[in-house]
């Protein structure tokens, strides 16, 4: 019997790779424009994860809140004769929150520099605006994203430890009139947390948009922040030397003074310290001043953000 | 079908007119935008993207108005800018997926697609490196990747081979060719490097001083008017040229022993005339073919 056995065949050499490496387009979902700013804000906050300086400063903020909590514990358990809040039992908790907000303002300023100085200037340096604005984003989306990135970081930096302190007070001092003395304290905490966050965010986006390096934006903003303290301090020293209370009002016109002043308006308590009694400032001057600063900062940033630099001539 | 239609477009920077009464239709496929520096190529791209507001005239991309539908247009377009650009502090995967999210892709899709396009653009091995550490060639590739991530229907490539070494240039041009060959993406390449356009594009638009001076498919533009032939002789043979000129044939161009002749009458048998003339003067014809123009000829003719 004759069997027809086929000859063993060599495998054919492959002329092309096994995988299809040709270009394939994406045909999936593309979301609407509504929350594009959030992508930018979230990305800014994610980049902070690797920033050691940010975590150290944040830890210091928490430490200050913790120390205020400890102070509150001791003062609440001290005999009436040596208790610094003895005469101010009704505003004790509100004053604690105002003091801790004021006490962390310098740290918030440092965090603001860490988050905000490079927010737009680093993009200017890396020509990243072309990447952003060649996507379906408007200048307003971009600016809002950057602003919210700074604002939310600073807002949470104040809000989260404040809420921890609030919960501590709620669980420990409910029987000592914590809620009864100031039922709206929770809302005041939220509103007060917005103040430095909004002012820093607005001014920093402006400073950052006009710089081509984060360092320059930092120096400019630090000069503005401390310069305003120095100038108002000089006016205080020269013009209102003998009038401590009037001088303190002038100090309220510095950047940090504006933030402290608005927070005092929100908490609505008078500060008594060994040097002077600080009455609740009139909102008619510092609130418009704060709003004006925010508008100037945002407008400056908006004027500078362009996908292409148009040289007219 | 045209993917972009521009009518009487005028773009001014202050008193300087960058684009002057420009009307053009960009066809489907891969189109090259050629022109000397300052011709208005980049201005045209930026106007189509909605970055610049035209002084007058109108433009449409995929039927969408450049003045009013900028966002919708940019959703369908990917832009690879000429200059280096990246998002500071990000590695390639984060950067490209972030670009996808900015274009509206869901985060999970953007991440998956980022890996895909980085692999496609040849950055698969370096995808977790910070973009700031990339070489010039890698930066060109990542710019292409971020332009492709959201699946655009049209990509603008502004000088895509800038700063690349010969091997990198070949690879970039092969990528561009491959993308346009997919038929899913139209490509508009702006360059002043003629060989790049010649290797990648089907059509070309030549600009000078803010105006279109020549447009069409490269194949059509290469064709010569009348009957033109290129003849390669063994050595330079002046009597051969004189013999042809005596019969009414014009010498158009000569480079050593390479001649280009124009025949006045299309019905003439050019081959017969050439070989008979060579035989008469004792010349030796080494090569003979119908003449085509190079893109360089077309470009130089257009901008003269």
Structure report:
The complex is a heterodimer of chains A (313) and B (304). With 313 residues, chain A is mainly alpha-helical. Chain A has one domain. Chain A has a two-stranded antiparallel sheet. The longest helix of chain A has 34 residues. In chain B, helix 3 packs parallel to helix 5, helix 4 packs across helix 5 and helix 9 crosses helix 10. Chain B is of the alpha/beta class. Chain B folds into 2 domains: 220 residues, P-loop containing nucleotide triphosphate hydrolases (Rossmann fold), CATH 3.40.50; 70 residues, Protein-tyrosine phosphatase receptor IA-2 ectodomain (Alpha-Beta Plaits), CATH 3.30.70.2470. Chain B has 11 helices and 14 strands. Chains A and B meet through helix 1, helix 5 and helix 6 of A and helix 2, strand 6, helix 3, helix 4 and helix 5 of B.
Count all strands of chain A and give the number: 2
* CATH architecture classification name of the largest domain in chain B: 3-Layer(aba) Sandwich
Instruction: Compute the average pLDDT of chain B.
Output: 89
**What order do the helices and strands of chain A follow?**
HHHHHHHHHHHHEEH
Q: How would the global form of chain B be characterised?
A: elongated
In this structure, how is the largest beta sheet of chain A organized? Answer: 2 strands, antiparallel
Question: What strand line-up does the widest sheet of chain B have?
Answer: 6-7-8-3-9-10
Strand percent estimate of chain A:
under 5%
Number of domains of chain A: 1
Strand content of chain B: 25-35%
Number of helices of chain A: 13
Percent helix of chain B, as a range, is 25-40%
Reported by name, the CATH topology of the largest domain in chain B is: Rossmann fold
The major β-sheet of chain B equals: 6 strands, mixed
CATH class of the largest domain in chain B: Alpha Beta
Average pLDDT figure of chain A: 87
The N- and C-terminal alpha carbons of chain A lie at a distance of 97 Å
Number of beta-strand segments of chain B: 14
The largest interface is:
A-B, 42 and 49 residues
Question: Largest beta sheet of chain A: what is the strand line-up?
Answer: 1-2
Going by helix content, strand content and strand pairing, the class of chain A is mainly alpha
């Amino acid at each position: 019997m004759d069997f027809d056995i086929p000859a063993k065949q060599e495998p054919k050499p492959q002329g092309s790779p096994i995988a299809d490496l040709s270009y394939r387009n994406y045909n999936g979902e593309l979301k609407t424009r509504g929350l594009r700013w959030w992508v930018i804000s979230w990305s800014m906050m994610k980049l902070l994860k690797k920033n050691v300086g940010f975590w150290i400063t944040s830890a210091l903020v928490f430490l200050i809140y913790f120390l205020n909590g400890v102070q509150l514990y001791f003062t609440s358990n001290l005999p009436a004769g040596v208790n610094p809040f003895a005469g101010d039992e009704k505003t004790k908790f509100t004053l604690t929150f105002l003091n801790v907000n004021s006490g962390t303002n310098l740290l918030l300023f440092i965090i603001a520099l860490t988050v905000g100085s490079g927010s737009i200037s680093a993009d200017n340096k890396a020509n990243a605006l072309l990447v952003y604005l060649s996507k379906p984003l408007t200048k307003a989306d971009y600016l809002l994203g950057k602003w919210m990135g700074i604002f939310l970081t600073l807002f949470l930096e104040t809000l989260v430890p404040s809420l921890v302190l609030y919960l501590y007070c709620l669980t420990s001092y409910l029987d000592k009139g914590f809620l009864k003395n100031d039922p709206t304290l929770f809302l005041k905490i939220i509103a007060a947390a917005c103040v430095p966050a909004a002012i820093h965010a607005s001014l920093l986006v402006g400073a950052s948009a006009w710089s081509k390096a984060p360092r320059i934006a930092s120096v400019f903003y630090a000069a503005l922040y401390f310069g305003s303290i120095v100038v108002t301090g000089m006016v205080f020293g020269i013009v209102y030397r003998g009038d401590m209370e009037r001088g303190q009002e002038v100090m309220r016109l510095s950047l940090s003074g504006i933030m402290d002043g608005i927070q005092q308006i929100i908490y609505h308590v008078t500060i008594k310290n060994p040097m002077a009694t600080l009455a609740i400032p009139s909102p008619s001057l510092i609130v418009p001043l704060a709003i004006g600063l925010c508008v100037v900062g945002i407008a400056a940033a908006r004027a500078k953000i362009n996908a292409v630099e148009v040289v007219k001539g | 079908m045209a993917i972009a239609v521009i009518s009487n477009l005028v773009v001014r920077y202050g008193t300087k007119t960058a684009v002057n009464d420009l009307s053009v239709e960009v066809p489907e496929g891969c189109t090259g935008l050629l022109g000397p520096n300052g011709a208005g190529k980049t201005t045209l791209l930026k106007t189509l993207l909605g970055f610049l507001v035209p002084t007058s005239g109108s433009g449409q991309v995929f039927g969408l108005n450049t003045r009013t539908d900028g966002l919708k247009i940019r959703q369908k377009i990917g832009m690879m800018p000429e200059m280096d650009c990246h998002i500071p502090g990000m590695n390639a995967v984060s950067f490209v997926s972030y670009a996808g999210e900015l274009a509206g892709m869901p985060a999970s899709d953007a991440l998956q697609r980022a890996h895909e396009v980085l692999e496609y653009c040849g950055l698969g091995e370096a995808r977790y490196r910070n973009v700031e550490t990339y070489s010039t060639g890698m930066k060109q590739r990542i710019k292409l990747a971020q332009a492709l991530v959201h699946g655009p229907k049209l990509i603008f490539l502004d000088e895509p081979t800038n700063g690349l070494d010969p091997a990198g240039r070949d690879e970039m041009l092969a990528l561009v060719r491959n993308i346009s060959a997919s038929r899913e993406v139209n490509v508009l390449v702006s360059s002043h490097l003629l060989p790049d356009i010649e290797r990648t594009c089907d059509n070309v638009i030549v600009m000078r001083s803010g105006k279109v001076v020549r447009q069409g498919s490269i194949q059509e533009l290469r064709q010569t008017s009348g009957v033109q032939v290129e003849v390669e002789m063994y050595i330079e043979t002046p009597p051969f040229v004189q013999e042809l000129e005596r019969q009414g044939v014009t010498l158009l161009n000569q480079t050593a022993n390479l001649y280009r002749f124009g025949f006045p009458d299309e019905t003439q048998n050019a081959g017969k005339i050439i070989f008979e003339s060579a035989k008469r003067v004792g010349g030796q014809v080494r090569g003979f073919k119908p003449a085509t123009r190079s893109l360089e000829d077309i470009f130089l003719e257009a901008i003269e």
